[in-house]
Specification:
There is one protein chain. By secondary structure, the chain is an all-beta fold. It is 0% helix and 51% strand. The strands form 5 sheets. A 4-stranded antiparallel sheet has the order 4-5-6-7, with no helix packed on it. It starts with a strand and ends in a 6-residue tail after the last strand.
Length: 196
């Protein structure tokens, strides 16, 4: 029921369906509302996810009240009751709707929960080496990593990838699908997988 609007000086607010300003303009990017909350930054000019310094981010409700304070280096919208947030060390974790960190910031990527699971990237401790694994909403890692790339679950299945000849010019991605108990139900033989 609200649309985010911007005016001079990198000021953002929100209007209702009649055009009435219901969230006053304030400095810092305001993202679209999702599940009643919008990500709000305190940045003074345009920034993007690839900038080294993006300001700090929190969450605002539809009355314009900051309900989760701006203390995160980056944030993603809430999905299934949790939002991915990045700390100042550039590691990702998850907060609940009250702003409490419920899954520690230990992951290398920002990914939302889908069907109760998130496909996170974990640093192994070796130079630039990572693995992907699924975690549940408690942060518990489920099943040993067996694939090079994992995708979100949709309708009870997830695309998984094995990379043949990694790091070479002949690198090939092969796709298959696993079910919710991580059993391979469609063999890893396909060259592409598209979400429908």
């Amino acid at each position: 029921g609200l649309a985010v609007v911007e005016t001079d000086g990198y000021q953002f607010g929100a209007i209702d369906r009649t055009g009435k300003l219901v969230i006053p303009f304030s400095q810092g990017k305001l993202n679209d509302f999702n599940n009643g909350l919008a990500i709000k930054g305190n940045n003074k000019e345009y920034v993007d996810a690839y900038a080294d310094e993006t300001g700090l981010w929190g969450f605002m409700d539809k009355t314009g009240k900051m309900v989760i304070k701006q203390e995160w280096s980056w944030a993603a919208p809430f999905s299934e009751g949790l939002a991915a947030v990045q700390n100042k060390q550039k590691k990702w974790g998850y907060i609940n709707a009250q702003g409490k960190l419920v899954i520690p910031c230990t992951y290398e990527n920002e990914v939302s929960f889908s069907e109760g699971l998130a496909a996170v990237t974990i640093a192994t401790g070796k130079a630039d080496e990572t693995i992907m694994a699924y975690i549940d909403k408690t942060g518990k890692q489920l099943a040993k990593p067996a694939y090079d790339v994992l995708r979100d679950f949709k309708e009870g299945m997830s695309a998984v990838v094995k990379i043949e000849k990694p790091g070479t010019d002949d690198e090939i991605y092969k796709f298959g699908f696993v079910d919710k108990i991580f059993k391979l139900v469609i063999p890893i033989i396909h060259e592409k997988a598209v979400d429908i």
